[in-house]
Structures
1.
Amino acid sequence: MYQKIIVVGNLGRDPEMRYMPDGTAVTNFSIATSRRWADKATGEPREETTWFRITVWRKQAETANEYLSKGSKVLVEGRIKPDPNTGGPRLWTRQDGTVGASFEITADAVRFMSARGEVSSEQAGGGDLGSAPAQEEDEIPF
């Protein structure tokens, strides 16, 4: 069996990098994707934003932490990591009592879409963050 997801979006905040006890780098960041359409009944513009939590390992983690920042546009290829209890997205209760969901992706490849030093650009800048596939670890220290 095989699964692959490709997501293009903008970072919602700066990446956070940590090191595992064995020295392996791991970086987390969240990206938002949006789609826009016109409501068929009213013709009013509508927008839907979906958030993804991304985990990147090893050299790619170090590079992502160094070059990405809030607002950067990235393309992430990877696999969805389901919640072990539900098999779906991770669910939690927000402060206002509503239920939230987090779609979590373990990245195999991360590519810059913004030019270096540029945030939220529509220009494609390229720049693959490493060719070796990322490895999933069981425990993330945060």
2.
Amino acid sequence: MAHYDRLTALDASFFHLENVETPMHVGAVTTFEGAPFIDGSGRFKLAEVRRLVDSRLHLIPRFRKRLMTVPFDQGRPIWVDDDRFDIAFHVRLTALPNPGTREQLLALAARVQTQLLDRTRPLWELWFVDGLEDGRVGLIQKTHHALVDGVSGVDVATVLLDFTRETNPVSSPEWIAEPSPESGRLLADSLLERVSEPTEIVRSIRSAVRAPHRALERATQLRRAVSSFVGGDTMVQPTSLNVPVGSRRRIEGVSVSLADIKVIRNALGGTVNDVVLAGVAGALRRLFESRGEEVSSGLLRVLCPVSVRADSEHMQLGNRVSAMFVDLPIGVEDARERLAAVCVTTIDLKESEQAVGAAFLLDLTQYAAPTLLDLAARLVARQAVVHLVVTNVPGPQVPLYCMGARMIEAYPVVPLSRNLSLGIAVLSYCGHLQFGLNVDPDAFQDLDLFAAALEESFAELTKCALESDVAIDEE
């Protein structure tokens, strides 16, 4: 039986969730210094940029692969070389009327993000944007969620970009597309694979019999983790955030000093991620108050993706994530108490190993038939399991460069699903936490208010931290 580079069940779920209203690609809106991209005649060096990107694609081979489906949906799709790969289709140039403003760039990015990626080609696009104010160049990135998660997305960025102004040459071997399998052969191998997969479960049982103490310890750990993941109230009461979304999008970016986040953490406790969640909770409290919604005893459940990518899986694409479900205490008025409540919640979740339970359940889906996965993904999308998604991805704290141009800022974009009108993605880069806010503007009409509330919430936490330090000094 041939070995295929097949989508995992989690990767495939992003295809099952995708439709015109909810494209399932992740992305970012980035700005660079502009001068290094412009030649002596004032033209953008598009051909040179394409050569640079093309020369590095051998380091991320899936960026030259397209998806091939199994006949009659009898297996998850596989990655095959795109024999008509054309770098010009994936690296594009557009422009704004000079001087293009930040608001115009974000509006353009929102329009680009609404368009589905072409599934007959490799699932990524880079849109360079010329004509920005202050001589800057923009970059709008789109990569299907089936191809990358947050951590592997950062890995890809560090391959395509440089850590110095000097563009490091990469020896690029000649690429020759390997032929795709015949449909009949793929179908036969997929059916055989499905029949043989249960033997892996039998093998695990035999291993448990041979090493009962180790198996019992692992089983106990998984029982606690899975109980935490599926126990309690799995459904949530919908809020004004949880309404059906359409195909329009609006994107906004908010930048918070990482130094301020560390001041808060050191003075008030918790982790950087705890501080991020507490800041988001404060902003959501302000948002709901402005909407006239009850917050006094409120909790909002957020899905926080958790990377389970091992060090040995560096530069491997696809999704290696689990999840934690964190109840944000928006009913707590005091910022200090709000952060303390978040810390208690996340400590409990870590001790219960909820993310391990989620990963275990996701692994079990590897053995499910594709049609069942399709049905399960669509059912989950229609249920009120969480109120929103908040994903926090660590990035490099040193400048990155493209063509010798320094990357100034990068706001990540996470996709919306059927009943989530707000998505929050956070990327740490070069001393800042950069929040990418993605909404359906018809369902979420007060994005400016929420962006301001986010800044106010972190400013309030910083003020509390500085006052706490003063109090300690005075004692």
3.
Amino acid sequence: MMITRFKSKIHRATVTEANLNYIGSITIDEDLMDAANMQDGEKVQIVNNNNGERIETYIITGERGSGVICLNGAAARRVAVGDIVIIISYVMMDIEESKNFKPISIMPDANNHLIG
């Protein structure tokens, strides 16, 4: 039997852009992606702390060190620049494997850069 588990998250990132005229997705600084063990094209859930919206989309790699968190396409209507979001990825795994699995959680600073 398989179970869906929380794999990793970027906790309390600040939205830097909202681009309605892009074809969809979320652009994330590659430094944050690496630290959170997230990949280009990976499905994620975005939780907007400011308005309670929950969005599912996929990741596009953003410029390393830029601090970019940009919601694109229709998702851009669900955020405002400056909103605080949580970006969560999940993984399916065998129940036995899940017993020893340790998720990753990172908390960037106010400019979406890694702390420490």
4.
Amino acid sequence: MRKLVFFSVLVFMLLPLSQSFGFSEKGQDCSKCHKLSKDEAAALLKEFGQGLKILDVAASPMKGMWEVDVEAGGRKVPVYIDFSKKFMVSGAIISLKEKKNLTQERVEEINKVDVAQIPLGDALVMGDKNAKHKIIVFDDPA
């Protein structure tokens, strides 16, 4: 009887210790167990737009969520899907410590134009074509 009581007390004392090594452990990389592919993100978001295209899926700046870059109607924006795949958040993530809008920074990054990809074969070039800084002006002659 004493052995049973001792064993029960031992298990009861070690239970909180064993739980501390579980999923909620601080610093654990949750992306090792939780995955979201582009195809799965497309399936989850298909109800939100006919021409919705998934550009990328990556870890969000906020733990427990993925950042999913989507394009619809020529507009590229990030949305966030939680690890349970039950919720989508569309809005700004703001770092309180840094006082920065992390979502806006991502919007600017995914919408950045690579000027090296702009064809200038038929362009009117003024000044030194090998200058360090260049300005590209678009005009509609019509």
